[in-house]
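Final paragraph of the annual report: two paired records, presented back to back.
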Amino acid sequence: MKNTYSGWHVLYVKHQHEKKIHAMLEEYEFDSFLPTVTTLRQWSDRKKKLIKPLFPSYVFLNVRSKKEFHKALTVKGVFKYLQFGKEYATLRNTEIDRIKRFLNLEGISEVATVSHIPGKGDLMTINYGPLNGLDCEVIKTNNRNKVFVRIESLRRNITAIVPNHFLTKRFSMGKKNYSMV
């Protein structure tokens, strides 16, 4: 029987308080992770770089015990654990590692998340860097490829601009997908 409490969970937290809550969790010696991206914000008189959470209102927490699971809910600004139906949203260590490596990869820009399923597009496989082997869907815009990478555990997508040479065309034959090099 799977231990419901241990592993990476998703805390749903107060909007625009993610960094503060992440810092408090670390102060209490929790193993937490807040993926962030740098964005350029344009005002009428200036531009400013902002560091924003990749997943707004989410902080990831690696829970080690039932006691720790419940104690995290006492941190000010934490509302609850993200759930789909009756099950808590959990991530595998490999998914957390891929998110970390993805955010540190050179050549990736305009990283954002979307919660809707992407429209129809080419099925591709990323063939370079830490995301090597990850399937994705591409939408062409302005001679660049916008890539949607589905992370099943979160029921979210990551979007980013990825250079053409990072991608290999995929095609479908029956139930299996095959890569063309």
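The closing record of the year follows.
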Amino acid sequence: MTCTLVIPEHLAKQLHDAVAADLESGAVLLARAVTAPSGELRLLARSLHWVPDDAYILRETDELQIASEGYVPALAAAEADDSVAMWLHTHPGNSACPKPSRHDEIVDTELADVFRLRSGTEWYGAVVLAHHEGSVRFCGHIESETERFDIDRIWLTGRRFTLAHNWLHTQAALPDIFDRNIRAFGGDIQRVVSDLRVAVVGCGGTGSAVAEQLVRLGARHLTLFDSDVLSASNLTRVYGSYPSDVGRPKVDVLADHLRRIAPDINATTVNSKITVEATARTLLDADIIFGCTDDNAGRLVLSRIASYFLTPVIDCGVLLSSAPGGLLEGIDGRVTLLAPGTACLICRRRVDTSRAAAELMEPEERRRLADEGYAPGLPGVEPAVVAFTTQVAAAAVGELLERLVHYGPEPAPTELLIRAHERESSANDQLPNERHYCHPDANKLGLGMTEPFLEQTWQV
């Protein structure tokens, strides 16, 4: 079982500031525990409660002593939030080792029962943070009275992404096939790409191009989602498809293709729409999701996943506009980052909620209401060209690399618009609307499991 601690950007900044300080710092980190369908454990960080200055009995560069009033109030907050309370402290200084000292281990033993009792959960966690030239180093674990697991990874999400592995775990050597990648962005980023759990929602022209590029970059853990079968008209755009594949599920066609590229890939297929609740729950295994679906209802699910489970989503869209007679007039592409604290697709007006509702209706009911003027008629088959779906897919995968390597402008924008017919592109940013679920003040970031799931209604 892999255990991942997911930390949103606003908390990650506090941690970076703390490890850069001259003295040790202590805090209680509150996190919601979520067991993904695969059995992997994800800890969704909700808040940080730093020890007040007057609660330090001793505070040096290599030692802390803290009075109980420095952490007990945070345990009450953990109980109120139904969160796991984790003791976190820093080892300051550039290139400091995050390995727990003997004293740290004694403190863990003393705190574990108190934290579990006062927070009302079965779990206690501990994390030691350090850094090297600004890069996070950590050791950590989570334990109950009967079992204990290492925290294997910390996934820092927001406008930038950072994946750090437990300092005590040995990292595998990188294959020679990635030599050119490593020359471009280094071995650490290559390891991150290889370790990321990636979901691709939609395996048509855009999704198949995204998936192939990810695998050639080194991604080895992919889950593919699509409910459709390959049609003859898909052959002009879907990567890895052949005439003999017509009638097969798109996810199977794409998975077979990816396995030919990388036989060691772990590719899981889900032949279902993510508007089905059981299917949507499968997304909880992902570190990052590429949204390559053209339905509005599916995009609403992805938009909520980004907030409730701190899972960044890179959402793609391609729109070709043709005049009567078939003259191509407009070639528009969009790549939008949905991350904790950024505006969702509704705030950005990138989703038509009335169409989303219509997409979830039974076909007969939708036709009846459309005829009566109570529901929008859904569009027919839209034009699509492989050159433009591939262009947007490449931009989406490039966004992932930019967020990992941090080579772009600061602050990093959250949306890229491509106007290929004008040979122009532009970037923009937008903050969440007040009182909307994606706004930090709504207290939905990292909320995790709710009843109903994602606090929305689902089809039976």
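The first helix runs from residue 9 to 19. This concludes the annual technical report; the extension proposal builds directly on these records.
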